[in-house]
Design a protein that fits this description.
Layout: H1 2-19, H2 46-76, H3 81-94, H4 103-133, H5 138-150, H6 152-163
């Protein structure tokens, strides 16, 4: 339960700031298709789950730090988070050139968006490295995360390990 709440809070709080910007990127990493639930293991060795727990802890910390940096970048341009998100949504729906804002606000938004996108790409690379430094391949990490979200046995084991950290 601890992991899911923490992960969900982090993802919900940065989903607009981080992951929405990826639709505006000219080049994005291809998404790996998820594994059909029937093909997911329902049990993992404790050693592998320990690596996962260590990796997710580092990833969560990196996400929190990344979120704070992105919020700071937005606020440094005298934009509120809500206004940035409004402009971002509008840019995604109408196109970046069609947002309803003053020229100064458009310029601040565009500069901030570029900075946030750069931070996002850097954060993604840092998270990949953190996962790999723990001894997992990104695909293994994703598979365990998917199992965590879909399998109560895996979730229970991971939650227990997280609570003991």
């Amino acid at each position: 339960m601890f992991l899911k709440k923490s992960v969900n809070q982090i993802f919900l709080s940065i989903v607009i700031l981080v992951f929405s910007t990826s639709t505006l990127l000219a080049q994005t990493a291809p998404q790996q298709p998820s594994i059909p639930p029937a093909e997911l293991p329902d049990d993992y060795p404790d050693e592998q789950l320990e690596l996962f727990v260590n990796a997710i802890s580092k990833v969560m910390t990196l996400q929190e730090q990344g979120q704070a940096s992105m919020v700071e970048a937005i606020q440094e341009q005298d934009l509120s988070i809500s206004r940035f998100n409004e402009l971002l949504t509008e840019a995604q729906q109408k196109g970046p050139e069609s947002i309803d804002a003053s020229e100064d606000e458009k310029q601040a938004f565009n500069e901030t968006l570029a900075q946030v996108q750069s931070m996002q790409m850097e954060m993604e690379q840092t998270m990949i490295k953190a996962i790999q430094d723990e001894g997992l391949k990104v695909k293994e990490y994703q598979q365990i995360m998917q199992s965590y979200n879909l399998n109560s046995n895996v979730k229970e084991k991971v939650d227990k390990m997280m609570s003991q950290q």
